[in-house]
Design goal:
alpha/beta; 34% helix; disordered N terminus; single chain; 9-stranded mixed beta sheet; globular
Length: 407
Amino acid sequence: MKKFIIALCALGLFASCSKNDNEDEQPGRTVLIYMAAENNLGYDASDRYAYDDIVEIKKGVKNIGNNHLVVYVDKCKDPNEQYNDPKPYILHFHEGELKDSIPMEESITADAAILESVARKAFTTWPAKSYALSLWGHGTGWNINNDSVKYNARRRAYGGDNGNDSYLSAGKYWMNIPSMKLALSRLPHLDYIFADCCNMMCLEVAYELKDVTDYLFGSPAEIPGAGAPYDKVVTEMFNTNIASVYKNIIDHYRDSKSVPLSCVKTSEMVNLANATKAVLKNMKAKHGDAFSYPDMSDLIHYYYDYTNKQEFYDANDFVLKYADTGDYNTWKQALDKAVVYKKIADWWDTNKSWPHYYVDFEMTEKKFGGVSMFVPTWRQKATENKTIKQMGWYYAAGYSEIGWEEQ
């Protein structure tokens, strides 16, 4: 009997060791790079940003170890008939090598249903202990289209898909952030979302995505078409220390290009929304009716739509200007808990093409908060002052309670 018990214990110990060994062998993280390039990022004059980034990715995967990198690519046709891909496809890398190249059906990459389908395929075909997402393409922050996937030249959010392999525009189909959130909510929770697209670091997007990812990082401003240096950042995507992921990627990005960058810890967004509601209420009481359309001159702004006069203003610079010192300091504590890392830039690579729109403010560490925040202006009363109401941040931050309604 004693020998039988010893044998059972030994068998149990062996089984336990085998289980632990299998867990250790499981890949640490699967990262999906979702490349929406059926637009002028696929081909723009002599630049082939998507192709060049894929080349960089293939260099960067050499040191990813026991992890999965999945790249979904939907590119436009090259007018010179070089680097053409007839349909979207998936590249799968593991242990530093390209393991799979899988053709996919033609689709609208800006459709949230396609994002969900591709991510589900990536995460179920190549499972791991954790998951993350990188959004590659065009972006204009929180902007809302009239439909979840619809052409609208003024109000757009993420993606940019022409739907016909054309490179002649930024895209006519766009994905709303609430639609993105809904799609991602049906998938495994993400360690992080790296937004390699313009204007995504705004409080509205961070609040909307707070339940699907632990961290969101990217730029509040326009970024250059070439985007991140993927030969350097791909390895960092798989660091087991999440703080090292966003810090190292942001550092590599900032070292290669002049772009303001930041990272938000999304679990702090509710606290920041509450702090914002309190400070806005006091600011309204102090400034009265004049606060309905605040004077935004001299404030840092990250985006200028020269057709519709729309701008994304730095959240910290705005509150610094209008709040009392004590109220600002209290709110700033909440902001600092949410924005866990940031890198300033006096100018960014894309604003050199329209510099006259970016000479009316001073960029300093004191003013720079790393994230933008919607503030209603009279120029936006027919558009953004209304569509902002479709974002959760509008209600969480108490906009409706201080009379920030369309006039």
